[in-house]
Amino acid sequence: MKRNKIEQVRVLLERNPRIKTADVMKALGTTKSYTYVLMSKARSSYQKQYGETIEDRMIRMRDLAKRIEIVRPNNLPKGMTVAEAEEIVADVNQAISKHDSVNHPAHYTTGGIETIDFIEAKKLGYNLGNVVKYITRSGLKGNQLEDLRKAQWYLTREIATLK
Fold first, then answer.
1. Dihedral angle, C-alpha 139, 144, 147, 149, nearest 10 °
2. What is the DSSP letter of 20?
3. Is the pLDDT of residue 1 over 50?
């Protein structure tokens, strides 16, 4: 499925928070002023969803990576116990699982089941799958009314194919 421009920018920013505007423009084929708007909205939606900026997350993840390096065998600092190292690993695993925006984004896993698992189990197809997707995540990513209108659009399209 094609992502909207803001989601595309979010992916680019998550991969490289210091990406240059010119590189985003080139990747998306947008104008400079529109790219600034997209980047601002992408950062804002990320912060709204996760409660931190993309840049802060990258700093935190770098810190976690350093902590992972510490707990490798024969790499414990003097005075650190195995129990302390295991606690660090648990913290790292929790942080990584909490922020998997590609494979398991928070707005897709709300309610204990991923929407895609339900859609595939019911063999709903593209249009009806999108109806379910937009309804189940409505309001979790931002504009609830927009998500419900998208669901309605896909449902109307599916009904039209059955006539």
1. 160
2. -
3. no
